[in-house]
Write a structure and sequence with these properties.
The complex is a heterotetramer. By secondary structure, chain A is mostly helical. Chain A contains 16 helices and no strands. The longest helix of chain D has 29 residues. Classes of the chains: A mainly alpha, B alpha/beta, C alpha+beta, D mainly alpha. Chains in contact: A-B, A-C, A-D, B-C, B-D, C-D.
């Protein structure tokens, strides 16, 4: 065995050990404590969900003027979070950004869980979720009535369910080789059987790799327009309506940029903890954070540009309703929310121009947390400030949340984190096969490939 | 029609046809259970056995005459609202009354109805009604109560009978017989929201007892001195109709339009409709009137001089004086019932000078009895009485100055006849359960010589008896009144009275009686000449000085619950105040400057004191209230047996005692002081500013004279660009509505009518505070101009049934969609509740059932009888909105189609339209060029609300035309083209 | 476990680096083998060419399914909203094709992605859990760190000695017989 | 571990699972499909009244008893009084001379002046406002919705009476002579039936 080959073999084995260790070892006390806490939060979500089902939407702060509030805010927030995952795994794959490998798997998982969280809100926001399954889908029914395909909500139904399904398939396809590795490393019978079944008998055959690679590329190719479409469709919920402050053509790109922005912030938020918790600092390095933060600052600038454009267009259009809607955002009773949004999404991210902050976990952390906060407020501002003072001034009113609103939001964070923790515990958080492929010497021809 | 109400006895729930509508929620619950059952059944191998639980149809054993299952029967009847006798027409279905309309042939309301009239239906089915006589807290028998009363009456001890003032002719006759049969008995009349002070003043200046009723339909100049004749002073339904007639502007014809001048203390419905409004303290009204009189008498500068000294707008007062001077014979002055005699005397002088008697009717036999002086009642009770009978009065709650309990305790036996176990009923030894107006025989005296007949439309739901029936039985049981022997019951007595009275000329009494039952009205108006004014007496009275300090108190009956008698009515409590839009409460209403001076803001608690009495109230800051005036309303702060209306608001009864009986509802020397603490007062509308949007267009004669198309030029028409063809609605029917803003006075009667017709749920104060009220029609109010004396616009808002309905586009499940006749349908059983439609509705006329409001409200099966069986009762999680009364449209169009006849304009009337006293609303076919609504659309005054949104609404508004005096410099009219 | 239940089904040659694998693969390709394969822990760039494989046909499946998705979406929306129950919505024409675009796109992606997954599962012959690689004890190496060439005994060019010789000549130092457990009993 | 036998087992398990899900779902859908759930419902009635005898053999017109069908929304059941209109005179007896049980029960109800609690067979949800008079005036035969009642000894629900059932008829092409703007046989507007 050549020296080079020996190094490669050792590296490959070490990589397996590193990445798969959390999935193979007994849960740590820290993990157990974390999941207990997040599980309780998820329980809060479940409780508030049931409370709403049994009592009604009246338990929320929504009213006749503000028909949507935290419910749809949370929906858009979570859908937005999900988008970074697809972006990292799909778009960066198409762009052959190798650094994505370290975070792609995790980001994809995050997408899936964020979509799961997001889907809860349209479901519960009617107060009668049991109606959704057979009325919101165009299924044959004894009433002979179908659905309204002109409604952006119907587009949402298709977009979000397609997004969830495709993300899950993409994620699973990516997992296959790693599941096979887990299977072959498993010592315990049950683990071997479970991972064996999940890996579907993957054996590393190059004929399979050939199809697999092509399919992966196709998935990336499909997911890229999909991710753009999903947030565009979500933005149509607003843009297609005639509510001043919603009815704007810049919403699709603005929402997509915002989604990527918030998603990257969320990836950073979680990855910083994850790499520490599971000792993956040398797999997910400062270099990765650095690159991600560059994307973050770029999208922050886009979002800031969108804010300015909105205001400019509102003024330039000469439409009194639009002008008022934006004046009201910045100077009305919810101005605090607007300025929180601007500060968190445009001002704070400017810190990321500094390389030191981009690469320092400690300095970076508050920034990404504030971005998460800001992006939640962005949706709140768009939804609530537009609705509370609509076209007819006699019907203006205010919104304030109730404990159920708060419980559902905080609880959904718990649900999300619980799913993340379970994922970290049972599945490889970094793609093993992809990481192997980019090891030095892993490519034929002495590692000198394109 | 029949005099045998037994035939129409409510017979349980005899068939599916009369089964109250189960809320659709039942179904979802049922579906859920079904699914649950399904899983069990699948497991146990019994699929196919899952059905809805069986329901039965119970046909009747015998069919009642006239009654077709599920089809309405109408009965004419009568009802006295506070002080005013109106006629009503009651729709019953399968033996239960489900809707009240105004009686079309009635001289006073002519088919229009008030909120109170509508809401009286709710109290019929009120689960908190007294259901049987009570002795103390125990259930008692009528026989025992009657025996007890007879014993006391025969005992020869002192007997005091206190009744309300609105007794009908037969009831008055019965009281007289009672007094004859019981020589020791004394009769008193107790009311708080009465016009006693005014009637006394009239008696003095005209030398005759009677009342003056405005008859405004031909008046050109109307001056109101704090008289809310469009709100709650007098026969408002008639006044509104007459006034609306004077405001009717058909294209360009503004010459005959009246001009309304209002000098008032608070901000009233009348003030909201004024062409010029002079905020003034009540104490200055007599002076103002006298100054105007002096001007008319030739002292040209008197009015302006007075205005200057009183701090009023000189130009407005000067213009008023010249307007009056120029309009002799066409002008009329009205003064508020609460004002001191000086104002009434001055008004009488002005009217005499203006030759206003053409616009005033002298009514020699008023509909109500004169009110007793509380001091006299106190004197009669203070020594202790053997028997105290209280018929339909509630002095424990509303005794001026309070403290009736002590007087009541002095009576050996006290008997209260009441619909509810109210404050007084609970304090009496015997409480007798009254029957509802809809379960009673009675008559009224709407006009001299004209009698209204009230008949029961349902047998008493509970073991109750109407008050007059009790009085009849007690008198009859004494055996001293021979004539009563021929009468079995009160019904026979009413017949007897009519036989002797109004129907006496009829040859065939039975026929005449049946006809009267059918018409609800009998007799002919006997006109009386307007009595001559005793000028010297009037001048003497008018010269009396009215004490007036820095803070003056005005107490008015509440717009909805009046003096408190409707306090338990949820429909009325949730009906917003027509000026401030407050619900479920009353308040100390202050103007901006007064509130600023006192350092209080809306919601702060203040103590209002006058004459040693005080009451604690929250502040409401209302633009337009005169500086130095605090306006409060009666009727709140009650202690009621049910949850609804109990402890809502604050009682001001104590303040009524402040000034004795002369002017109990006005005090010139009040004080208002912050009391510390706050209280949540809920307004349904919180913003009154139009922020420059095309919501209301107004104009004035001058503008129209310059350009007849002035309104059309102010419209914000959307651009013509259409990227696709619209549906063709030009064939068949196309329903539309017109609302004439120039006629609408903003009385809110339509809101209650709509609730009654469409099973609209009430939500309660807490939910109102969260902006979750459910009114399908609301009356928006906007203020422009000076916040201390704003111009007010009222604008009824219903679903606009837009051709390009934005709500429809966004509903994912097609729960709201357009019909071929241009209606925006809302299908409750399809609605999943995304609320997207409401978000997208520019008019915010969609309302979401955040809770199961109707279900939560139901406590007793009897309440279900209230529901209109033609309209689905909505459940939780469902969006609802105005449907243009689709049930009424379908009823008429189906019938027309069955009979292959065309639909006539006017055959379909929406509930709001039918109630509207101003006839401002019209529902009709836009494809019928002759229909009212088509003509309204073609009018040069027609516009659409938020027209620039291009949603193509089908509710055509006619612009508000103000008629300012040319001498007064007016700010520009609203809605200038931008 | 008896030897009767073990059957030699081919040869497996193991390598420690992709370059050697590549060379061996080229040799096998040139030797005209048909039933053979390489097994690697990660996709090795250029191996397809080395093995003489054509491009994967998966994209054709994807694009076909995608267009079927668009067709289904259009037919579904058109039939439901225009033909079966034409409901007037918001003054928009019944055939509001611009409003139907988002769902067409979504169904394009859904159908394309679903069929791609299906095609991968089918073409990669996934869902077969047994493998002689397990029985030969080399699977763990392959999914972890080593590279393998497997020559199937059923190939016409296969002969145990000559093929082993071919692999060794191509640089393989670790050539083993590929065995398969044929017994009903559970191995290990 | 991963032998051919393992494969077989996994495949059998997956097959069984998939098959039972498929069968369960189709069976459940069929059984719970409201149209299937509703039709064929023929509950026992308080009196064994036979439409076959009345409407079939004696050819009594439906409207003779369900007299409001032409006039109003509800077809209504006859009152006991109207049953007695005939059965006061016509009182068929058993061979042993006793009254037939149905007649005996009817007389009992009449004696007590009590209504008969018929069990509803053709039932609509409360949010559906069906108008009999409109359909009769439009030339719809009773049997089109109620089935051949004249052949039924005990009334059976023939059709689902679900919205699809209504639409199948309403959305047919308009009859000859209908106004040109009428696009269907009867309106398919939501608010024709829901309000």
């Amino acid at each position: 065995m050549s020296q080079e080959a020996a190094v490669l073999t050792a590296e490959l084995k070490r990589l397996d050990d590193d990445i798969l260790k959390p999935a193979e070892s007994f849960p740590t006390a820290r993990w157990a404590a974390c999941i207990t806490f997040t599980g309780m939060l998820a329980g809060v979500f479940g409780f508030c969900f049931l409370w709403t089902v049994f009592k009604g939407i009246g338990t929320w702060g929504n009213n006749n003027a503000v028909g949507w509030a935290w419910d749809i805010t949370n929906f858009v927030f979570w859908i937005g979070i999900g988008h970074a995952g697809t972006l990292i795994s799909a778009i960066l794959h198409l762009l052959r950004q190798k650094w994505r490998t370290s975070i792609a798997r995790f980001a994809e998982a995050m997408t899936l869980f964020a979509v799961i969280c997001a889907m809860q809100f349209p479901l519960i926001h009617t107060g009668r979720p049991w109606l959704a399954w057979y009325w919101l889908l165009p299924l044959p029914n004894p009433n002979g009535i179908w659905v309204n395909f002109r409604s952006p909500l119907m587009w949402d139904v298709f977009a979000v369910s397609t997004y969830g399904t495709v993300s899950a398939m993409f994620w699973y396809i990516g997992l296959l080789p790693d599941l096979a590795t887990l299977r072959d490393r498993a010592t315990h019978g049950i683990r071997k059987v479970v991972y064996g079944i999940l890996s579907l008998g993957w054996n590393g055959s190059n004929r399979a790799w050939s199809h697999y690679e092509k399919a992966y590329l196709l998935f990336a190719g499909l997911s890229t327009p999909l991710v753009l479409s999903v947030h565009s469709v979500v933005s149509f919920d607003f843009a297609v309506s005639i509510v001043p402050g919603w009815h704007t053509t810049i919403f699709p790109p603005y929402f997509v940029a915002g989604a990527i922005f918030s998603g990257f912030a969320m990836v950073a938020t979680l990855v910083i903890i994850l790499r520490k918790m599971f000792h993956l600092e040398h797999r997910i390095t400062e270099d990765h954070l650095d690159v991600m933060n560059k994307v973050t600052i770029a999208t922050s600038m886009m979002v800031g540009y969108a804010y300015l454009t909105e205001i400019f267009i509102a003024w330039y259009s000469g439409v009194a309703y639009e002008r008022y809607a934006f004046m009201n955002r910045a100077m009305g009773p919810y101005a605090w929310a607007y300025w929180t949004m601007v500060t968190c999404n445009v001002v704070v991210p400017q810190l990321l121009w500094f390389r030191k902050i981009r690469r320092s976990v400690i300095l970076l952390y508050p920034v990404v947390i504030l971005i998460n906060v800001g992006m939640w407020f962005e949706r709140f501002v768009i939804i609530v400030t537009s609705l509370h003072r609509r076209s007819l001034p006699s019907a203006w009113d205010m919104f304030s949340p109730t404990w159920v609103d708060i419980g559902l939001f905080v609880g959904s964070i718990g649900l999300f984190l619980t799913l993340i923790l379970l994922f970290c515990r049972f599945l490889p958080t970094v793609s093993v096969s992809e990481s192997k492929a980019i090891l030095p010497g892993a490519a034929p021809g002495g590692g000198h490939h394109d | 029609m029949s005099q045998m109400p037994e035939k129409f006895r409510y017979q349980g729930l005899p068939s599916r046809e009369v089964e109250p509508r189960t809320p659709p929620d039942e179904y979802s619950r049922r579906e859920a259970i079904k699914l649950l059952a399904a899983s069990v059944a699948l497991a146990s191998g019994l699929p196919g056995c899952i059905r809805k639980p069986p329901r039965t149809i119970i046909s009747q054993a015998q069919s009642p005459e006239y009654q077709h299952p599920g089809m309405p029967l109408y009965y004419a009847s009568a009802w006295t609202e506070g002080q005013v006798p109106y006629g009503m027409m009651i729709r019953t279905v399968d033996g239960r009354p489900i809707k009240i309309e105004g009686l079309p042939g009635h001289p006073l309301n002519r088919g229009a109805s008030s909120a109170q009239m509508q809401a009286s239906l709710l109290s019929l089915y009120d689960p908190d009604r007294l259901r049987n006589p009570m002795k103390g807290k125990d259930k008692a028998k009528w026989a025992d109560a009657d025996a007890k009363v007879r014993e006391a009456l025969q005992g020869g001890g002192s007997v005091v009978l206190i009744t309300r003032s609105s007794l009908g002719p037969s009831e008055r006759a019965m009281v007289e017989r009672f007094l004859r049969a019981v020589p020791t008995a004394k009769h008193f009349v107790h009311e708080t929201a009465h016009d006693g002070a005014r009637r006394t003043a009239w008696k003095e200046v005209y030398g005759a007892d009677g009342e003056i009723r405005p008859s405004l339909s031909k008046a050109r100049v109307i001056l109101s001195l704090d008289a809310d004749f469009l709100g709650n002073d007098g026969i408002t339904l008639k006044n509104i109709r007459d006034f609306a007639q004077t405001r009717s502007v058909e294209d360009g014809g503004v010459k005959s339009m009246s001009r309304l001048w209002v000098a008032e203390s608070g901000m009233s419905v009348t003030g909201s409709n004024a062409d010029h409004r002079i905020p003034v303290q009540p104490s200055k009204l007599a002076g103002l009137a006298m100054a105007l009189l002096e001007t008319l008498e030739g002292k040209a500068e008197a009015a302006k001089a007075f205005a200057k000294s009183a701090g009023l707008d000189e130009s407005v007062v000067g213009a008023l004086a010249s307007d009056l001077a120029a309009s002799a014979g066409a002008a009329v002055v009205l003064a508020g019932a609460h004002l001191p005699a000086a104002v009434h005397a001055a008004a009488a002088l002005l009217n005499a000078k203006l030759q206003a008697s053409a616009h005033l009717e002298w009514c020699a036999s008023p509909a109500t009895l004169p009110v007793s002086d509380p001091a006299e009642i106190r004197a009669a009770l203070e020594g202790g009485t053997d028997l105290l009978i209280l018929l339909g009065v509630n002095p424990v709650y509303d005794w001026p100055g309070g403290g009736f309990e002590a007087l009541l305790a002095k009576a050996r036996t006290s008997v209260a006849h009441s619909l509810f176990a109210d404050e007084t009923a609970r304090a009496c030894t015997w409480t007798l359960a009254s029957s509802h107006n809809l379960e009673s025989w009675n008559d009224t005296l709407p006009e001299p010589g004209v009698y209204g007949l009230c008949q029961p439309v349902i047998s008493p739901l509970w073991d109750t008896r109407q008050e007059a029936e009790s009085l009849f039985r007690w008198v009859k049981s004494l055996g001293t009144d021979g004539e009563l022997e021929s009468c079995q019951d009160w019904h026979d007595f009413v017949r007897l009275e009519w036989k002797k009275g109004v129907l006496q000329p009829a040859s065939d009494f039975e026929y005449a009686w049946e006809s009267s039952l059918r018409a609800g009205i009998a007799g002919a108006k006997t006109a009386a000449a307007f009595p001559a004014l005793n000028e010297s007496k009037a001048r003497e009275l008018a010269g009396q000085s009215v004490a007036g300090g820095a803070m003056q108190l005005v107490i008015q009956p509440h717009h909805a619950v009046l003096d408190g008698r409707f306090g338990g009515s949820a429909w009325l409590q949730e009906r917003p105040d027509p000026v401030s839009t407050i619900v479920w409460d009353n308040a100390a209403v202050l103007g901006h400057s007064t509130a600023a001076k006192l350092g209080v803001k809306e919601g702060d608690l203040v103590t209002v004191s006058a004459g040693g009495q005080q009451a604690k109230l929250p502040v409401v800051v209302q633009p337009g209230v005169a500086a130095g005036v605090v306006a409060v309303t009666l009727g709140h702060g009650r202690s009621l047996p049910g949850a609804i209306g109990d402890q809502a608001g604050f009682s001001v009864a104590k303040l009524l005692g402040a000034k004795g009986s002369a002017t109990p509802r006005f005090a010139g020397d009040a004080t208002v002081a912050p009391a510390g603490g706050t209280y949540k007062v809920v307004r349904l509308q919180t913003n009154f500013d139009m922020v420059g949007r095309p919501i209301v267009i107004d104009t004035n004669p001058a503008e129209l004279a310059k350009d007849a198309q002035a309104v059309q030029k102010k419209r914000h028409l959307p651009g013509d660009a259409e990227i696709h063809a619209s549906f063709d609605y030009s064939k068949g029917h196309k329903w539309g509505m017109s609302i004439d803003l120039n006629k609408c006075v903003g009385c809110n009667a339509c809101m209650t009518a709509c609730m009654a017709e469409n099973n609209v749920p009430i939500v309660g104060k807490t939910e109102c505070a969260l902006d979750r009220e459910m009114h399908w029609i609301r009356v928006d109010r906007y203020h422009t101009g000076n916040p201390d004396n704003p111009r007010v616009y009222t604008e009824p808002m219903v679903c606009m049934q837009c051709d390009n309905a934005p709500c429809e586009l966004v509903c994912p499940v097609d729960a709201t969609a357009h019909s071929e006749d241009g209606l925006n349908a809302q299908v409750y059983n399809r609605c999943v509740g995304t609320r997207y439609c409401a978000n997208n509705c520019p008019y915010k006329v969609r309302h979401f059932n955040f809770y199961g409001y109707t279900g939560d409200w139901l406590k007793d099966p009897v309440q279900e009888l209230l529901f209109n069986p033609r309209v689905t009762v909505r459940s939780r999680g469902v969006m609802e909105k105005c449907t243009f009364c689709i049930q009424r449209i379908n009823e008429v169009t189906f019938k027309a189609k069955n009979e292959k006849k065309p639909v006539v304009d006017g055959a379909i009337r929406a509930a709001c339209e039918q109630a509207c006293p101003a006839a401002a609303i019209s529902l009709g076919d836009l494809n019928d060029p002759a229909s009212l609504v088509s003509r309204a659309r073609q009018s040069s005054l027609a516009f659409l609300v938020l027209e620039d949104q291009n949603v193509r609404p089908n509710v055509w508004y006619k612009a508000r035309v103000r008629n300012p005096h040319p001498d007064v410099h007016e700010p520009a009219a609203e809605g200038q083209a931008h | 476990m008896t030897s009767e239940t073990r059957k030699t089904v081919g040869l497996v040659g193991l390598f420690d680096d992709p370059d050697s694998l590549m060379k061996a693969a080229e040799a096998c390709r040139d030797a005209g083998f048909r039933k053979w394969d390489c097994h690697t822990p990660y996709p090795v760039h250029g191996l397809d060419r080395a093995m003489g494989m054509g491009p994967s046909p998966v994209p054709y499946v994807t694009i076909t399914a995608g267009f079927i998705g668009i067709g289904v979406a259009l037919l579904m929306q058109g039939w439901m909203d225009v033909i079966d129950y034409p409901i007037r919505i918001g003054g928009k024409p019944l055939w509001s094709w611009p409003a139907f675009v988002p769902i067409c796109f979504e169904l394009f992606v859904l159908f394309a992605a679903g069929s791609t997954l299906g095609a991968v599962l089918f073409m990669c012959r996934l869902g077969r859990f047994h493998s002689p690689l397990h029985d030969s004890g080399v699977m763990a190496d392959i999914t972890s760190s080593r590279f393998a060439i497997v020559l199937d005994a059923e190939d016409s060019k296969f002969s145990p000695q000559a093929s082993e010789e071919l692999l060794r000549k191509a640089g393989c130092t670790d050539v083993r017989p590929l065995v398969e457990n044929t017994g009903e009993g559970e191995a290990h | 571990m991963f032998t051919r036998a393992f494969d077989r087992r996994v495949r059998i398990a997956a097959g069984v699972l998939g098959f039972s899900l498929l069968v369960g779902a189709s069976f459940g859908t069929y059984a719970l499909w409201p149209a299937n759930l509703e039709t064929g419902y023929a509950p026992e009635q308080p009196i064994e009244f036979s439409h076959k005898i009345m409407a079939g053999d004696f050819k009594i017109d439906c409207l003779y008893c369900h007299s409001f069908a032409e006039k109003g929304a509800h077809a209504t059941l006859p009152t006991v009084e109207s049953c007695m209109g005939c059965h006061d005179v016509i009182q068929p007896k058993n061979p042993d001379g006793s009254l037939r049980p149905g007649i005996a029960k009817l007389l009992e109800y009449w004696k007590k002046k009590e209504p008969i609690p018929w069990v509803k067979v053709n039932d609509l949800a409360d949010f559906v406002y069906f108008d009999h008079s409109r359909h009769l005036a439009g030339g719809v035969k009773c049997q089109e919705c109620h089935g051949p009642v004249e052949t039924m000894d005990r009334v059976r629900r023939q059709f689902s009476l679900k919205m699809k059932f209504c639409l199948d008829c309403h959305s047919q092409p308009p009859p000859v002579g209908a106004p040109p703007h009428q696009t269907t046989r009867a309106p398919i507007n939501c608010n024709t039936c829901h309000r």
